[in-house]
Design goal:
With 256 residues, the chain is mostly beta strands. The chain has 2 domains: 66 residues, no CATH class; 166 residues, no CATH class. The protein is built from 3 helices and 18 strands. Strands 5, 6, 8, 10, 12, 14, 15 and 17 form an 8-stranded mixed β-sheet that branches. The chain has a 5-stranded antiparallel β-sheet with strand order 1-2-3-4-18. A 5-stranded parallel β-sheet has the order 7-9-11-13-16, with no helix packed on it. β2 and β3 form a beta hairpin. The longest helix is centred in the middle third of the chain and has 13 residues. The protein is elongated. It starts with a helix and ends with a strand.
Length: 256
C-alpha cells in the first residue's frame, strides 16, 4: 500500500536499491511486529517487490500494477457506437458493453475533483478548468456547455456536450451516456489527448432517472462538429497526465 502511494506522488525509476528500506511493520495494536522494504523492479509492466520479516518468518511479494482511470485510446476521436459497428481490434474490451462502460464511469466519479448536477432540462456552463500543473477530473451528470475556455484533465459528460467560442482541452473528453457532442459554427476548438463518445443511456431522462435508462447495447452517437471547427490530436502524454489522479491497482502477484 505504501509503495503504491509513493508511486502516486512521485516519479520513480527501476533500481536495485529499495525506495522504501527497513520500514517498521506494525500490528493491529500499533506495535512493531517486523520490518519491510519495497523495490521498483520494472516500469513496463510496472512491478513492485515487497520483502518483509516478522521474527524468523520472511515473505516476498511481487505485484504488477497498472494505473486505473480511463483505458488508453488508439485514435484521436473514438465514436464507440452500436453492436452493428465492428468493435475495433486493439480497443480495450471494457469499452464494449454499456454495463462495463458504466463501471468505468463509476470509477472515474469516485475520484472526481469537480462534480456538477445540472438536472434534467438544465445545463451547466463551465469556464477555465485546471492548469498545466493541476489536471482535474470533472464529472457532469447532465448537459454541459464549455465556452471560450481552456481545460486540463478529464471532462466526463453524461448528457449532451456543447462547445462554443474558442476552446482548448488537454487530456480526455469523454461523453458517456447520451453520447452527444456538438459545436457551433463559430467554434474554434483544439484538443490534445483524445475524444471518446458512446451512448449507454436512452434519451428518456426524468427527474427520477436524470441519466436515462441503461441500454442493453451501445446506441448511435451524435458528433456534430462543423468542418474546420476543431483540431483534435491524439497525445499519449496528455492521456497519461489526465489519468494521473487515479490510483494504481494490482493486475497480478506472486508470493515466495
Amino acid at each position: 500500500m505504501e509503495g503504491r502511494e509513493r508511486l502516486q506522488k512521485a516519479s520513480l525509476v527501476p533500481a536495485p536499491v529499495p525506495f522504501i528500506k527497513d520500514a517498521t511493520l506494525l500490528d493491529t495494536n500499533g506495535r512493531q511486529a517486523g520490518r519491510y522494504s519495497v523495490t521498483l523492479l520494472r516500469s513496463d509492466p510496472l512491478t513492485l517487490r515487497s520483502a518483509g520479516s516478522i521474527g524468523p518468518a520472511r515473505r516476498t511479494i511481487e505485484v504488477r500494477l497498472k494505473r486505473s482511470g480511463f483505458p488508453a485510446l488508439p485514435d484521436a476521436v473514438t465514436l464507440n457506437e452500436n453492436e452493428e459497428v465492428p468493435f475495433p481490434v486493439g480497443r480495450d474490451a471494457q469499452l464494449e458493453a454499456p454495463e462495463d462502460l458504466e463501471g468505468i464511469v463509476e470509477g472515474i466519479a469516485r475520484h472526481a475533483t469537480d462534480v456538477h448536477n445540472p438536472g434534467v432540462g438544465a445545463s451547466v456552463s463551465l469556464g477555465p478548468i485546471g492548469s498545466p500543473t493541476d489536471y482535474r477530473i470533472v464529472v457532469v451528470n447532465g448537459d454541459c456547455e464549455f465556452e471560450s475556455a481552456t481545460g486540463y484533465g478529464i471532462l466526463l459528460v453524461r448528457g449532451d456536450l456543447a462547445l462554443n467560442g474558442t476552446v482548448s482541452w488537454n487530456g480526455l473528453i469523454l461523453v458517456i451516456g447520451q453520447g452527444v457532442l456538438r459545436a457551433s459554427t463559430t467554434t474554434v476548438a483544439w484538443v490534445s489527448g483524445a475524444v471518446f463518445l458512446t451512448r449507454t443511456r436512452a434519451n428518456d431522462r426524468t427527474s427520477s432517472a436524470p441519466l436515462g435508462t441503461l441500454l442493453k447495447n451501445r446506441g448511435l452517437v451524435t458528433f456534430d462538429i462543423p468542418a474546420g471547427a476543431a483540431s483534435i490530436d491524439r497525445s499519449e502524454a496528455e492521456m497519461k497526465l489526465a489519468n494521473e489522479g487515479f490510483p494504481y491497482v494490482a493486475t497480478a502477484y506472486r508470493e515466495y
